[in-house]
Each structure stands twice: as structure tokens, then as C-alpha cells.
Design a protein that fits this description.
CATH superfamily of one domain: Jelly Rolls
Oligomer: single chain
Shape: globular
Largest sheet: 4 strands, antiparallel
Order of helices and strands: HHEEEEEEHEEHHHHHH
Helix content: 40-55%
Mean pLDDT: 94
CATH class of one domain: Mainly Beta
InterPro entries: cNMP-bd_dom, cNMP-bd_dom_sf, RmlC-like_jellyroll
Strand content: 15-25%
Protein name: Crp/Fnr family transcriptional regulator
Low-confidence stretches: none
Number of strands: 8
Strand order of the largest sheet: 1-8-3-6
Length: 187
């Protein structure tokens, strides 16, 4: 059976067995339980995570104590605090597990080494970065131009499995609405 990371990478670039072994040697695997953090606000982040199994949330808590979810991370998704990871500054977000999760991570140093030594992986991450920017742009545009109902319907259309795995209050925090507003949309 093909390793899930290899399948993921080969959606963009093909790898020989030797190349994939070389890539995989730059990663470590970890398991985290539901509610465990992989990143806490204020720490310097040195790892980028790829979700093998599970569901995570990236979020920050504002001055009033309200949680704002920036991103969910499910199988085959990458997640970290990218500003902290790239600039080696203190994290502005926290990431914790909504479900028990299995993750692969690569350190900043290993990612830099891997991209310098292997053009295919440099191309892979460049493509993934472009896709991430497109998704972020679409999320911002949706927040600016769509009604709450339209944002809800779009999220349901794009990620129906999320609604089976994530509590409604987290969906509301992602959409930027109250739980009560979300309940009215659900009925």
C-alpha cells in the first residue's frame, strides 16, 4: 500500500521509491489526543504539520475571550502558524486537536534542506503555497461579500464532512457568527 504522504505529494509531482524514502526521512510522526495542543499562542513555531488522521483547528482568542477559528485541518491538509514558522517569530495563533490525531511534521530546517536538495519538493511546496493563497483569498472575499447564510452553504458544499466532525459552536466561530445565528440557519 502506498504511503498517504506519497499519494499526497504525487498529486503534484511524481517520486521514485528512493526519492520518497529521502523525503520521508525528513519527517517525524506524532499522535495527539483530542484537546491537545500542537502550537500555543506565543511560542516560536519550528514545525509544519500534515494531517494523516484527525481534525484540528487553528484559532486565536480576542481581548473579550471570544474564539475566532481561522482554519480547520483534516486529512491531507497542512497546518501551522505560517508567520511564526517562516519568520521564526512568536505565534499569534494556537492549534489544537478536535479529534485524536496522527500527524507528520517537518521542521523548518529540514524543509529548507529538502527544498534546496530536491527541486521536485521545492515545486511541490510552491504549488501548495499558491493553493493556500487562493483559498485564503476566497475566504476573505467570502467574508466581505457573502451573507452568513451564503458562507454557511458554501462551507457545507465544500466540506460536508466537517459538519459531522466539528461542533456547531466551532462552525459558528469559523464563520464569524454566534451559535444562535448558526442555529437559525440550520433550521
Amino acid at each position: 500500500m502506498t504511503h498517504p504522504l506519497r499519494q499526497h505529494i504525487e498529486e503534484i509531482v511524481s517520486l521514485t521509491d528512493e526519492e520518497f524514502d529521502f523525503v520521508l526521512n525528513h519527517f517525524e510522526q506524532i499522535k495527539k489526543r483530542k484537546h491537545q495542543y500542537i502550537i500555543q499562542e506565543g511560542e516560536i513555531v519550528n514545525k509544519e504539520y500534515w494531517v494523516i488522521k484527525g481534525c484540528l483547528k487553528s484559532y486565536f482568542v480576542d481581548n473579550t475571550g471570544k474564539e475566532h477559528i481561522l482554519q480547520f485541518g483534516m486529512e491531507n491538509w497542512w497546518i501551522t502558524d505560517y508567520e511564526s514558522f517562516v519568520k521564526q517569530t512568536r505565534s499569534k495563533t494556537s492549534i489544537d486537536c478536535i479529534e485524536d490525531s496522527e500527524l507528520l511534521y517537518i521542521s523548518f530546517e529540514n524543509r529548507e534542506k529538502l527544498t534546496a536538495q530536491m527541486h521536485k519538493m521545492e515545486h511541490f511546496w510552491a504549488k501548495k503555497s499558491k493553493f493556500g493563497r487562493i483559498a485564503l483569498q476566497n475566504r476573505i472575499l467570502s467574508l466581505l461579500q457573502n451573507s452568513t447564510k451564503e458562507r454557511y452553504d458554501l462551507l457545507l458544499e465544500q466540506y460536508p464532512q466537517l459538519f459531522q466532525r466539528v461542533p456547531k459552536k466551532m462552525i459558528a466561530a469559523y464563520l464569524g457568527v454566534s451559535r444562535e445565528t448558526l442555529s437559525r440557519l440550520d433550521s
